[in-house]
Fold:
Amino acid sequence: MAFDEGLAERIRAHLGVDSAVTEKRMFGGLAFLHAGNMTVGVIGDDLMVRVGPEATDAALARPGARIFDFTGRPMRGWVVVDASVLTEDEDLAEWVDRGHAFAAGLPPK
Structure:
């Protein structure tokens, strides 16, 4: 599966030069990790965001968000954000910051 390289580039630009952030091809897309913990990813044209179990319901209440069920089983703590709501840089930044903040709070792998 191909992923939106333009969206990936926008994420790279937002994350800047954080030395703890790495990239890895996963799920047929591209994942961004902080100290080995996944933060966000690009699958197709959509953004996958790790928000944590406690923040799932609030994230799902946002426009364009749906539960991450890539494997056929819903994964609490993860959401997929439709590309249609990511056209503005500030909207993308908010989601990327959510995923980055959650992963940055986890122990390094």
User: Anything to note?
Assistant: The two ends are 27 Å apart (CA to CA). The mean pLDDT is 94. The helical segments are 5-15, 56-60, 89-104. The first helix runs from residue 5 to 15.
